[in-house]
Amino acid sequence: MLQRPRRNRKSEAIRAFHRETVLAPDHFIYPLFVHEGKGRQPIASMPGCDRLGFDDLLRECEGALAEGIRAVVLFPAIREELKTSDGREAHNPEGLIPRCLRALGERFPELVLVTDVALDPYSSDGHDGIVKDGRILNDETVDVLVKQALCQASAGADIIAPSDMMDGRVGAIREALDDAGHTEVSILSYTAKYASAFYGPFRDALESAPRFGDKKTYQMDPANAREALREVELDEAEGADIVMVKPAGPYLDVIRLVRDSTALPVAAYQVSGEYAMLKAASQQGWLDEKRVVLESLVAIRRAGADVIFTYYARQAAKWLRTA
Ligand code: PBG
Questions:
Q1: What is the predicted pLDDT for the residue at 322?
Q2: Which residues sit opposite 50 in a β-bridge?
Q3: Considering 34, 62, 92, 162, which has the largest number of Cβ atoms within 10 A of its Cβ?
Q4: Is 313 left (phi over 0), alpha (psi -120 to 50) or beta?
């Protein structure tokens, strides 16, 4: 035999010569849930992730930074009495997210602060947009999302991440940010966000599940890939700095397609349901948690993601240091 591929796999040093994909804490954005009260509140379907009180948020960020995580994204659990049909709490300058941003910006100026733009945590309907007669209004919603983005930018967000999937929101937010002098604030768009059942545990965490219907008139059909290219084209034209595919693991083909169609950085979101599956099987002793998690993250990078939103960020950073 002239060809013996196994020769290139015969030791760790030789395997490392031609390893194509690198995974490092630089590639992670760490999602954190915050709530208005004190202390940590466990999330039943996401063991190991808690809703954090203000002091716990500061402690968590300090620990994560020490372990090499340089970016976090914040999601708020909003009290039921503050949820309204117009989601106005989303742009309250004294709201939970702006308060967290100001404190984190002061305490950890080097930490990259990413914020979610969408109305679902603030909406009494549990939808990402404003609802009228059972329909999700697009343009009226974009007006509110713009206010939300401006509020977050004023409080110190470095990257605004619209996850709502309304048409035209990236362009509207870009224009408003620029007009207000926030030319350095980036937009990471949830470009190809699918109407996925893998968001279940996240909606438990925020009690933000839709109160009627589903999100299929704005989030994408899981059966489609070409449609992602149309969304990339629009977001790019509207001024997005980074485009995202979500979920990640079940959509590796879409990550690759997007990677090959744009020069922008590509992000991918390993969502709550992906975390829950890996965690549950590991807790049962059916999978080796460290190995499956690192493998899942390498696979997302190999598919073409530059940066990964993952609830395992802090743990994976620790594992990578000792790997
Ligand atoms: C809200 C939002 C969702 C996620 C991120 N931002 C939920 C949804 O669209 O219903 C999901 C994240 C996850 O499941 O980890 N617009």
A1: 84
A2: 42
A3: 162
A4: alpha
For residue 253, the model assigns a pLDDT of 98
Name the residue at shortest CA distance from atom 7 of ligand 1. Answer: 199
SS3 259: helix
Q: Are 38 and 315 in contact (CB under 8 A)?
A: no
Query: Structure tokens of 123?
Result: 């909406």
Residue with the nearest Cα to atom 12 of ligand 1?
271
Which stretches of the chain score pLDDT less than 50?
Answer: none
Strand partners for 72: 30, 113
Cα 192 to averaged position of ligand 1 atoms, centre (Å): 13
Quote the strand ranges of 13-138, DSSP E: 28-35, 41-42, 50-52, 71-77, 112-117, 130-132, 135-137
**Longest alpha-carbon distance in the chain:** 73
The span from the CA of 118 to the CA of 163, in Å, is 6
Average pLDDT across the chain, whole number: 97
Asked if 130 and 136 touch (Cβ cutoff 8 Å), the reply is: yes
**Cα 202 to Cα 43: distance, rounded to the nearest angstrom:** 9
- Enzyme catalytic residues: 193, 246
pLDDT at 12: 96
Q: How high is the pLDDT of residue 222?
A: 98
What is residue 112's three-state secondary structure?
strand
Q: Which residue type occupies 239? A: G
- Residue with token string 């977050």: 152
Instruction: Tell me the CA–centroid distance for residue 11 and ligand 1, in Å.
Output: 42
**Residue 206 in contact with ligand 1 by CB distance below 6 A:** no
202 three-class SS: helix
Alpha-helical segments (H) within 52-138: 54-66, 96-107
Q: State whether the beta carbon of 231 lies less than 6 angstroms from ligand 1.
A: no
DSSP element (H, E) containing 22: none
